[in-house]
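Batch job 17 of 40 flagged for manual review because the log was empty.
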Amino acid sequence: MKIILSRKGFDSSYGGHPSPILPNGRIITFPIPANEKTEELDIKYDDLILNYENYARYSELMADLGIKLINPHCHLDPDLGASTYGRAPGWKPAFGQAEAAQAHLENQGVAVGDIFLFFGRFNHTFDDNGKLRYDANRHEFHMLFGYLQIGEILKADAGTVVPDWLKYHPHASDKAWKTSKNTIYISRDRLSFDETLPGSGLFRFSEELVLTKPGYKITCWNLPEIFRDVNISYHKKESWKNGYFESVSRGQEFVVDTNPEIQQWVEGLIERHSR
């Protein structure tokens, strides 16, 4: 089994703000804006359902957090939460990738049964008289926010027919399906190592999910020592510094060759923090 650390959601380049952690520990990932050249402009931030306190939609929370959207359409990917958007019968969580990033996943041998651990840039929020604000007293950090164990892989280059329930997905539109190496990873129904849990899902906040080492810059990770002697794509032995792991600032997916210790760590993380 391979583990793929996948960087997703708002950051300094896309969106300009971190995604928020709500006061009750719920993690909200703001998807990046849609790309007009490669996808249909079907889903808006105003279509994404939040249902937290007095916030019905993602767009309402984004406005109170000071996020000004130049593009109202979003790239809803990975799509892990059943309640985030209107669903057709048969819906399953899914994640898409294409072009050079997908070529990297193929070259690393990512296959059915492997697990994506999604991470992004986050900060805490607090309630300011009924409106949520970012906590300026806390620094932004990288954190794991969800997972997907691959159950099926759909490849545009193989002439795959997109099922009806998936046609809303940004990687499944007619325009996107023509993109080089466009691929969609469909979640397993249940985890292979724990059938009591779904094959994909979102986490609830825990310090154990935070990657950034306290007091260090965001790319300095407090990665467990069990990762030190395995291959992590885009990284070298020199990425391990005195007391932390230096994550590269560019790159979407980092593929980890696992060992029994890492696999046990990942399985425990999912079992403890799935919401």
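Reviewer: the log was empty due to a logging misconfiguration, but the result itself is present. The chain is about 10% helix and 25% strand. Unflagging and moving on to job 18.
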